[in-house]
Amino acid sequence: MQKRLLLNSQHLSITISRLCYQLIENHNQFENTVLLGLQPKGIYVAERIKAKLEEVIKKPISLGYLDITFYRDDFRRREEPLAPNETKVPFIIEDKHVVLIDDVLYTGRSVKSAMDAMGAFGRPAKVEFLALIDRAYSRDIPVEATYIGKQVNTVLSQKVLVELTEQGKKEDKIWLIDNSKK
Predict the structure, then answer these.
(1) CB-hemisphere CA count at 13 Å for 115?
(2) CB proximity list for 128: less than 8 A, separation 6 or greater
(3) How far apart are CA 21 and CA 53, in angstroms?
(4) Domain segments of the chain as ranges
(5) 37-58 burial, b for 16+ CB within 10 Å, e for fewer?
(6) How many other β-carbons are positioned within 10 Å of the β-carbon of residue 109?
């Protein structure tokens, strides 16, 4: 197994700031925009984005957590059932601009599931997707992120490991792990 560091704590902070400024360019003061972090790991990225946005624009930003467990296309195919996480959407998304946020974009199936899950909370005017890491060339579903922290070319034997302090890690590190036999 080989590990390659994609982002350390400093680079992650810079990346989060850049993503926030891109969001501000497109959503100004967020009057009609809400953030939805995908459970489980996307909520940590979403919380950081929210905190940085509020620091810059000096306004509260609406943030919710969306669990997609029961909307996954592999939900009933697993030997062990998935444990659901909390869904917390304390606002109406009807006619809002929604920014879905997740840590890694891989096959696109999580984004599709999130789109299905959002239907329970209304019909948004627009949906955008922010991914901290975009694993290029790996889509099963034609999905693209509107905002990308870092794009990485990967093969099937590789995976992206996101380690954040919110998960109990000592420091933020994002790794590309290669499990291929060499």
Answers:
(1) 13
(2) 26, 97, 98, 99, 100, 146, 147
(3) 8
(4) 9-71+84-156
(5) bbbbbbbbbbbbbbebbeeebe
(6) 17
Question: What's the pTM value of the predicted model, to 2 decimals?
Answer: 0.92
Q: Which residue has the tokens 């005017």?
A: 125
> Any idea of the CA torsion for 134, 113, 100, 165, to the nearest 10 degrees?
-70
Cβ neighbours, 10 Å, residue 174: 24
87/38 Cα distance (integer angstroms) = 9
Q: Which residue has the tokens 């946020």?
A: 101
182 residues of the chain, pLDDT tens digit each: 899 999 999 999 999 999 999 999 999 999 999 999 999 999 999 999 999 999 999 999 999 999 998 766 655 555 676 666 789 999 999 999 999 999 999 999 999 999 999 988 999 999 999 999 999 888 889 999 999 999 999 988 899 999 999 999 999 999 999 987 65
Evaluate whether 66 touches 38 at the Cβ level (below 8 Å): yes
Closest of 154, 152, 180 to residue 6, by C-alpha: 152
Structure tokens at 26: 């497109």
CATH topology for 9-71+84-156?
Rossmann fold (3.40.50)
